[in-house]
Each structure stands twice: as structure tokens, then as C-alpha cells.
Amino acid sequence: MSKLLQISGIIGVVLIAFGLIALAVTENPVDPYVVTHIILGVVCVVAYLVTQGKNFLASFGKRSTKYGVNAAVYTLVFIGVLIVVNILSTKYNYRWDLTESQVYSLSPQTVKLLGGLSQDLVITGFFEKGENPRASDLIKSYAYHSPRVKFTAVDPDRHPELVKQYKVQQLNTLHIAYGNESTNITDPTEESVTNAIIKLTKATKKNVLFLTGHGEPRLDDKESPNGYAAAKAALENENYQVKDILLSTQPKVPDDTSLLIIAAPEKPLDQHETEAIDAYLKNGGRIMALMPTAPNDGGLKALLKNWSIEVGDDIVVDQQIRLFQGPTLGVEPIADSYNGAHPITRDFKERTIFPFVRSVQPVKGGSAEAATLVQTSDTSWAEKDVAGVFKQGRAALGPDDKKGPISIAVASTASLKKLGGDKPGDAKVVAVGTAAFANNRYINIFFNRDFFLNASNWLVGQEEMITIRSRSIRASRVQLTERESAAIFYLSFLAPELLLLAGLIVWWRRR
User: Fold this and answer.
1) Which of 105, 194, 229, 249 makes the best surface tag, with the fewest CB within 10 Å?
2) 286/418 same-domain check
3) pLDDT-derived band at 295, boundaries 50, 70, 90
4) Mean pLDDT, to the nearest integer, of 257-269?
5) Is residue 93 pLDDT above 70, yes or no?
6) Is residue 315 classed exposed, middle or buried when 0-12, 13-18 and 19+ CB atoms within 10 A define those classes?
7) What pLDDT, on the 0 to 100 scale, is given for residue 59?
8) What share of the chain is helix, strand, coil (3-state, %, to 5)?
9) CB distance 261 to 399 below 8 Å
């Protein structure tokens, strides 16, 4: 019993310390764990002072006590250094994202957008009790990349006047203001926040028209894998105004058209439409031509030939190696070879998939300058026997086929003066060997969406928007009952506490 009383003071200090830590975490002074530890700790300390008080005072004159005091001082100095380092790291911090795909970092698009802010971007978060760690960490990442970003978390119950002023309808709403413009978003993710900033910082919207009337994929089709609703949504998120146009009923392509997209027409364009598109291009227009599956070309083959682009009557086949299956015939080639000199694909190193794609190659000697954007792998080839691929499911590299790598996307630029006009500027065309890469099924596979949007941004002259967009991850969560949560909480305290007490007892016995 006397030996136990000799270390009761240390045990009491440990119990009180853990009780206070638990109190700071739970903020509940009547928690059983907190109350029990503090009471037992005080009893142990009082018992030690009553029974060992004289010995405690006498121990201050011993050499071992002096060494202990020195050790305690050094410990306090070390803790003080840690505190100073933490304060400095809070003020002058740098972040490292060690994940392979950088999923915890803002996308290059967001970082580039923040670097172009010319005035303060004020973000106000309306959270329950003013707290939402996930959303706050996200906005702090924005503030880390730009001093222009100002963030404030607000408790709606304490500031109803702000709720009314900013027209907030629900919790976890972010009010984003830039200059005289503002908007509210209820989904605090990087994609939604960045899209909101794009809409606030862009003064005018660009008009993107999809040609219709020839069996093209529908913009309002969300259910079918061949629909283009996802492509429309992706463009609208970049602040484009998207709609379709029946050019056969229009005298010409509207003057306010920023980009005309022709996606997989099943029937050929009539002469009026071809002439209207040609006139639009020669006036500085922008065209994105997405080819249908061969042998159909919807009349685009002849149109693109005038812009130094040659479309093949073939289908690109790639030999894929699959585990336990060996080589198989692939009509959905995956590309990772890009033109690093062109703005669309500069620094683009991600994979894209192009199903049922045909060859699209630049042609030299014309009035336009064309360049390959994407190529398939060395194991691919352009198969001329398209019917054999679809009917028999077989293909082999023959003398009439072209061996890979195969060009499947081309960008073309022509000076308007070279085309015989007096107007300064240029016309731009992007041709891709398949329209399926941007449909509902494929646009969100790999980095197809980024390639599609980068091409659109280059065509309309918004090269500052060409980049890789935000990545999304799905967090894994486990649902715990209240009892399970409490058990984990208390065990997280009891385990280190028991280890510490056991170590102190062993140390005292050996001493």
C-alpha cells in the first residue's frame, strides 16, 4: 500500500490530464469518463500530498530531482518550439498531395482560373452551427492558391439577415460573389464551385449550336447511351449557351454563333447547308465535325477536304491483350499519344477512348494548315473492310490497310485573307473520327470530356480554359451506431492511458 501511495501522485496527474483532454473533446463536463477521471485524479493527488508531502518537499534537494527538473525544462522548451513551428506553418504553409492521381488537389483548370482573378472573390458558407469541415477545407484550398479568395462560415440561426439578403434556401449553401455578380450553390464540390466562378467571371456567353435534321444525337436525350445530353451539360458548365439549329430552314448560320458542332449526321447535308457552312467558315467561323461510323460520312468528307483534312473510309482496329484471353480485336481503341505542340493537347497526357473511330489525317498543300491531335497505338491499323469487322467480328492487317499509329483527330486553321477575304482573323476546324467518344456513354470515361471541352475552348478562342478539369472521388464510409461510436471514442483514450500507467508502474518498481 505504501508503494502505491508513493506513485499515487503521478497516477493522479495522468488521470486528471486524460480527463481534461476528454473534456476538451466532448465539451461535456458531466460525461462519466471526464467526471470519473478528474475525481479519481484529485483523490490520488491529495492522498499523495497527505502521505508523502514531506518526502516530496525533501526530494527537491536531491541531485536526481535537479536532473528531472532539467529534463522537464528541456521538454517544455521542445514543446514550445513545436508550438512556434505550428504557428509558422499555419501562416506560411505548403501542401503536398501524395496520391497518385492528385485527387486531393485542385485541378489545373481551377488553379488557372484563380490566377486570373482581377478582384476579390467573396465566398460565404451557410452551415449548421457555422461548421462544415469538408466544404471549409475545399474553399481553403481555393484561398491557398489565390489571396483574392475570401471565405467566411456563417451560422444561419445567428445571422438571419444574411440568409435573407443572399436568398439562402437551405443549409450547406455557398454564396459566391465576384464584383456585382453573385450566385448560390448547394453542392459544395470543386466542379460546382469552379463552374460558378467561371459563370461569374465571364462577361458574355458563347453560343454553341448543334446541327440537327440529319439523324444526329439529340441534346435532350439523357437516357440513351448515344444521346448528347451529357455533352450539352459539360458545355453549359463552362458557361456556353447550347442549343440546336435546323440549318435547312435558316438562310445562313447565325452571326452570333461561336461554334457549330456537326455530330454524326446519318443523312447527307443538302447543298444549301453545305454552302451556308462554307460561307460561315470563310467569315471566321468555327466548326467541330464528329464523324459517323464508316462508310457513311453525312457529306462531311467533302466539306473537310477543303480544309486540308482527309477522312478515311475505314475503321481503326487495335489488338488488345486481355488477361486469360490473349489478344482480342478492339474497335474501341484507347489513345495516349497526343500532339504536344498544339494548344488543345499541350501537356495532355491522359487516356481517351474513341469507339468505332475512323482515320482522320491532315493533308499538306491546301489553303489551311492542319495538324494531327490524337494518334492510336503502334498495334492498331486502319481496316478497310468495315463490313467484315461488323458482320464477322474479324479483321487482319492486309496490304490495303494502313498500319498504326493512326491519326484520328485533326485541327485545321486557315487565314481569312488566304481564303480570298478582306477580313482579318482566321477560321478553325476540328475533325474527330467518331462522334461516339462524346456521347452519354463515353464522355465521362477516362478524359474524353476534357478533350471535347479543350477542343471547344480552342475553337471559340478561350485557350485559357484549356486544361484538365477536376477529378471526383467517392469516399468510403462506415455507419456506426451511437453505442459503437462511444465505444471507439473511449477505447481511443483507454488504450494509451493504460499503456502509460503500466509503463509508470514498471518504471517505479525497477527504480
Assistant:
1) 249
2) yes
3) confident
4) 95
5) no
6) buried
7) 63
8) 40, 20, 40
9) no
State how far the Cα of 53 lies from the Cα of 42, in Å rounded to an integer. 15
- Cell numbers at 72, concatenated: 522537464
Across the chain, which distance is largest between two alpha carbons, in Å?
A: 110
Q: In terms of residue numbers, what domain contains 16? A: 2-92
DSSP letters for 447-508: THHHHHHHHHHHHHT-GGG-S--------------HHHHHHHHHHHHHHHHHHHHHHHHHHH
At 370 the pLDDT is 95
- The three-class DSSP label of residue 374 is strand
Residue 330: strand, helix, or coil: strand
Residue with the bigger pLDDT between 125 and 67: it is 125
Q: Which of 275, 284, 262 is nearest to 217 (CA)?
A: 262
Higher pLDDT, 469 or 198: 198
Q: In one letter, which amino acid is 147? A: P
Residue 303 CA to residue 431 CA, distance in Å, equals 11
Q: Are residues 436 and 299 in the same domain?
A: yes
CA-closest candidate to residue 153, choices 188, 110, 118: 188
* Confidence at residue 217, expressed as pLDDT on a 0 to 100 scale: 95
Return the residue matching grid coordinates 501537356.
Answer: 347
Q: Are strands 337-338 and 334-335 parallel, antiparallel or unpaired?
A: unpaired
Task: For residue 54, name the pLDDT band (cuts at 50, 70, 90).
Answer: confident
**What is the pLDDT, as a whole number, of residue 201?**
82
- Long-range contacts, 41-47 (Cβ 8 Å, 24+): 41/11, 41/12, 41/13, 41/14, 41/15, 41/16, 41/17, 42/12, 42/16, 43/12, 44/8, 44/9, 44/11, 44/12, 44/15, 45/8, 45/9, 45/12, 45/13, 45/16, 46/12, 47/5, 47/8, 47/12
Which of 359-373, 382-396, 480-494 is predicted least confidently? 480-494
Tell me if 507 is assigned to some domain: no
Nearest to 111 by CA among 97, 99, 125: 97
Asked if residue 265 lies in contact with residue 211, where contact means CB atoms within 8 angstroms, the answer is yes
- Rounded to an integer, what distance in angstroms lies between the CA atom of residue 141 and that of residue 46? 50
Question: Is 351 in a helix, a strand, or coil?
Answer: coil
Q: Render pLDDT for 445-467 as a digit per residue (tens, 0 to 9).
A: 989 999 999 999 999 987 766 66
The verdict on 176 and 323 lying in the same domain is no
Q: What's the pLDDT band for 92 if we cut at 50, 70, 90?
A: low
DSSP assignment string, 390-425: HHH------TTSEESS-EEEEEEEEETTTTT-SS-S
CA dihedral 387, 390, 393, 395 (to 10 degrees): 40
Could you tell me which of 184, 181, 171, 175 has the C-alpha nearest to residue 150? Answer: 175
Q: Are 228 and 221 in contact (CB under 8 A)?
A: yes
Look-up of cell digits 461510323: 293
Q: Are residues 207 and 272 in the same domain?
A: yes
Q: What is the mean pLDDT of residues 276-305?
A: 92
Residue 258 included in any domain: yes
pTM of structure: 0.64
Asked whether residue 282 falls in the same domain as residue 408, the answer is yes
Give the distance from CA 440 to its chain's centroid: 19
Higher pLDDT, 471 or 424: 424
